[in-house]
Specification:
The structure is a homodimer. By secondary structure, chain A is of the alpha+beta class. The first copy, chain A, is built from 3 helices and 4 strands, in the order βαβαββα. The first copy, chain A, has a 4-stranded mixed β-sheet, covered by helices on one side. The first copy, chain A, starts with a strand and ends with a helix.
Amino acid sequence: MSEENIVYIGNKPVMNYVLAVVTQMNGGVSEVVLKARGRAISRAVDVAEIVKNRFITDAKVGSIKISTEEILNNEGSNTNVSAIEIQLSKDATSTWILKSFWY
Amino acid sequence: MSEENIVYIGNKPVMNYVLAVVTQMNGGVSEVVLKARGRAISRAVDVAEIVKNRFITDAKVGSIKISTEEILNNEGSNTNVSAIEIQLSKDATSTWILKSFWY
């Protein structure tokens, strides 16, 4: 059974989010979804690329979805903001086999 | 036969790129690929969403790919930068039928 965990990407340094994703995946979560809005969208792409290229090399980028969300701004009216969802997954079985073999 | 045109998204106002995509699609191009790097990534998502929601409502977002590119920075060394490719397409046949019907 695949678990799905969501990491919301905001304005903190990119490595904070990378660490959150890596910690989850090493803890046995097989699928993490990165969600971001507005300017944080490019940071979400950075997080996905850094996790995949530097930390969890068997992680794969699954489906990427973009959408428009309505948010309430400071003046009390609605504005549209773009959003992205990036699915990151790795083969859960291989982790499980490795774990049961080594420990 | 589907044609593929590329629109590179940079730091200009978002509507400049929206206009470029809309002009191409109304001119008969059935598929446009938006490419962006670094902070322009969120602008590329904005362009795709605005084209689809406000101007060409039968346009669909196809595959979205993310990657890492190496670029030469000002100091002469290489840095990594994230990149995105967003495929926007509309049914070419329907446009063609409409055109031959009306003109």
